[in-house]
Amino acid sequence: MAGKWVRWNALDRFQPLVKLMPFFRLVFLILIMSVPNMNIISVGAGSYTTDLPPDQQAPQTTIYRSEALADRPMPTNDWWSALAWRKPGNGALFAHPLALSAQPGGLGVSYPNVPFIATNGDEYRFRYFEEFYVGVDSLNSTPVVADFSDWTVTADWDNGKLRATMGHGLPYVYFTTTGGEVEMTFRLATTLVPDGTGSVVAEGRPFGIFAPEGTEWTVEGNTIRAPFPAGGYFSIAVLPDTSPETFAEFRAHAFAFVTGGRVEWQYDEAASSVTTTFTADVQVMEGTEDQPFMALYRHQWLHTDAINTAYTYSSARGEMRVLRGNNFSTTMTYPGVLPYLPAVAVTPEVETSINRMARFNDALRLNLPGPNGEMDTYWTGKGLGRVAMLAPVADQLGNAEARDAFVETLKTTLENWLSVADDGTLPHFYYDANWGALIGYPAASFGYQTSLNDHHFHHGYFVMAAAIVALYDPAWAEQWGGMIDLLIRDANSPDANDPLFPRLRGFDPYAGHSWASGANEGNDGANQESSSEAMNFAAALILWGAATGNTDIRDLGVYLYTTEAIAIDQYWFDVDDAVFPEGYEPPAAGIVWSNGADYTTWWTEDPEAIHAINFLPITPASLYLGRNADYVRRNLDYLSAGANGIDSFGDIIQSYHGLIDPAAALTALGGSYQPEWGETQAHTLQWLGVLREYGQVDPTVTADTPHYAVFTRDGQRTYIAYNYGGDVREVTFSDGVTLTVEPHSLAVR
To answer: Contact, 383 vs 340, CB < 8 A?
Structure first.
């Protein structure tokens, strides 16, 4: 099976025949020359193609966007992505607090503030229910994406006949029109009252409609109409309450139109913190008020002092709090990421497992399939992750032969994927210029190629493997690093002007976490299951950036890792018991949707899988899971009460258990079990051995390096740091402890 995917150099393979038989040499060269030409783009030692491999699927060719966006890489995996894909069944766009539905006749508007709870208590949804509909002169054209920013999108009907800008945290939708009669129809009985200033009060409903003074509205039951000239504009807003004072204040700010938004981040290494600044672009349509209202999610308002009103909204992400202004900043603590953990208290079982795997390493080389023989980017990535965690353990055991064997497996497998074979055989990567996406083939898992799902999951494993190789072979990283950087840019380019890829494809900077779904099929918006694989991608960037001296990539990883960890605590784990609505029973979500969460996975109802999919892969970067010991215990208690004995993820669950009780985890694990597909017995035992030796993660202490961890056991702290630099470094921890770290070394105190 392994040989099927080996990227042979054909001339080398047949060299004996070529030397002995000039005739066969001529025939062979003719055959090589007859291979159809491929458009191959070289990147360092690697390459990719712009030709779709034969018999492989690609994303749909149609993108619903304006001609002005035809040359820009198209964002996917965003809260509004359904607008660009328009897959069958695609519906609501959950901006929060509003939910919108862009339809051929106009825009549907909803404020979903009451949850639906499944009868068994394992699902909640804040469903879209259309409150009213906004159209112009009986539109009947497919809306397209006309503009976008880091958290806003503008939809266009009929070349500007109607345009609507909406976004995360915006209580308003901002409209412009080239002229015509605007019509809004409420679905429920509503008293609509023009207030004499061009605005309309929806009495009994939390909505305001704001137009320039002199706009003449006609009211017919639940419908209002008004003629608008070319260049006309108006806005609608969901109001925090129905008081006249609130309506008046929102009317005063209704013409500070948000036209876009941008996010910037700054990693403060000395303080181990990340400051993220959100700035809304504002166009004042009339008057002098230039400050919009912006609603912040819980993970944001917990980490800012910018809130300056008492207004709040309900949402699927818990309470949103409102500020008056066009910018704010959050500051969050970065908890540190190590490339590997110290090999302390290594048991004979670990050494035996390492040696056994090294002896059979040839069977691993280029043959890292999934459980059913899958050889795509995800399952190859899982295999790379499995081997990558073994190399540092072998190195610390002094087993250079095993270390080198594991590193060689990583290099050979990565090279096989990161370059196009002379004859075009798979595997290799293809660049889809239509969407602006890099896709690895063969690609068969989870809509990775057709809907651009999960790119940060798949590519994260490749980047993590490359980061481990870079520890031991910097020259390889220099040769092949260009392709690794492309994988990073595809999944989450930091550059808004990247000519190949959209900015932050997988990461939603306002929501604070990634979305795995690229096309958002269905009526529940975007979704993500494995939050921990998103964290694996972020951690891989930190380590790859550090190993290659690219601080921009490193700091992007720090930003993603820090922000997503805090969002996971709130929206996947609800550690403060403040987000999941009453009636939702589990302490964790398996899948988070734009409009809610499910206690399930995409493939099984097995409780172990539901929990484990948000823990794996276990790496040194998984220590963020242990920052709240009380929550870890609550999570495990719920799992134990509902366990069904399938035990398909026993080692992953016990690795999580080890964050609070490693001795009990080791006992529960036992000596004979089947490792999870991306894990090995050696690595699991080493992980639990470190926790048994050093204790629980101590989140109260930080360090002035990106690569640190602190543990506490019986009141005694252990400090660990890694030095990627070429000079000795003294690391200072926030409690005053210092640690001297030799170049390219791990130190423990």
So the answer is: no
Angle at the Cα of 603 from the Cα atoms of 598 and 608, rounded to 5 degrees = 70
In the residue annotation, 264 being an active-site residue is answered as no
Burial pattern 45-84, b for ≥16 Cβ within 10 A else e, equals: ebbbbeeebeeeebbeeebbbbeebeebbbbbbbbbbbbb
Tens of pLDDT along 690-737? 999 999 999 999 999 999 999 999 999 999 999 999 999 999 999 999
| Contact of 414 with 466, CB cutoff 8 Å | yes
* Helix axis angle, 531-548 to 455-472, nearest 10°: 30
pTM tops 0.85:
yes
Q: For 435-467, b where at least 16 C-beta lie within 10 A, e where not — what string?
A: bbbbbbbbbbbbbbbebbbbbbbbbbbbbbbbb
Query: 529, 564, 606, 661: which one is catalytic?
Result: 529
CA atoms of 648 and 639, how far apart (whole Å): 13
Q: Closest by alpha carbon to 547, among 615, 465, 647, 619?
A: 465
360 — pLDDT class (breaks 50, 70, 90): low
Supply the DSSP string of 264-292, one letter for each residue. EEEEETTTTEEEEEEEEEEEE-SSS----
Q: Residue 515 in contact with residue 501, Cβ under 8 Å?
A: no
Catalytic residue, chosen from 524, 533, 569, 679, is 533
Residue 747 three-state SS: strand
Cis peptide bond upstream of 617, omega within 30: yes
Distances in Å between the Cα of 316 and the Cα atoms of 320, 531, 558, 573 are 10, 17, 27, 14
| Other C-beta atoms lying within 10 Å of the C-beta of residue 296 | 24
Residue in this structure with the two tokens 């590519």, named with its chain if needed:
459
CA distances from 428 to 52, 56, 318, 559, 621 (A): 10, 12, 43, 30, 28
Decide if 422 is catalytic. no
**Does position 4 have pLDDT exceeding 80, yes or no?**
no
Kindly tell me if the per-residue pLDDT of 372 is higher than 90.
no
**What is d(CA 336, CA 322) in angstroms, rounded to the nearest whole number?**
31
Structure tokens of 631? 């929550």
349 is catalytic: no
How does pLDDT run across 396-410, given as a tens digit for each residue? 988 898 899 899 999
Which is catalytic among the residues 249, 454, 698, 704?
A: 454
Write down the pLDDT at residue 351. Answer: 72
**Residue 231: Cβ-neighbour burial (10 angstroms; 0-12, 13-18, 19+):** exposed
d(CA 437, CA 499) in angstroms, rounded, equals 11
pLDDT for the residue 373:
76
Q: Please enumerate in sequence order all residues whose Cβ is within 8 A of that of 637, keeping only pairs 6 or more positions apart, or say none.
A: none
